[in-house]
Amino acid sequence: MSSSEAFSGADTAASQKLRPWGAASVLEEGRRYKIKRVEVKPGHRLSLQTHQHRNEHWIVVSGTAKVICGSEESFLATNQSTYIPACITHRLENPGTIPLVLIEVQSGEYLGEDDIMRLQSDYDEYDSPKK
Fold first, then answer.
1. Distance separating the N- and C-terminal Cα atoms of the chain
2. Is residue 39 within 8 Å of residue 24, measured between CB atoms?
3. 82 neighbors 90 (Cβ within 8 angstroms)
4. How many angstroms separate the Cα of 94 from the Cα of each of 54, 72, 104, 105, 110?
5. Could you read off the pLDDT of 35-75 as tens digits, one per residue?
């Protein structure tokens, strides 16, 4: 039996959602946490957004991430990470020439997708702002 088969209580089947900016897959989800693999195409970015009920930790697996968190802008390389607190405006961008791959760990009392408040999006037809 593999270690993933021995671990109970976690959904090990990743469901990938394709987006204009790349793709996201939920790797595991449990009470008060969710782990995603996020891939951002070169030159693309996610919406400028905020969440009321969750915090996020982003760990870069490969590529370069441009991160906006509040009024701060930073760049992260492979094996670097950042923390996005709840209620802080943030955005993820791939300024590089190869796909950006990161692991996103969400934690909080509520992790539903309807907790995303999009303030600006390059892909409004796919990513309509939620009010």
1. 46
2. yes
3. no
4. 23, 16, 15, 19, 27
5. 999 999 999 999 999 999 999 999 999 999 999 999 999 99
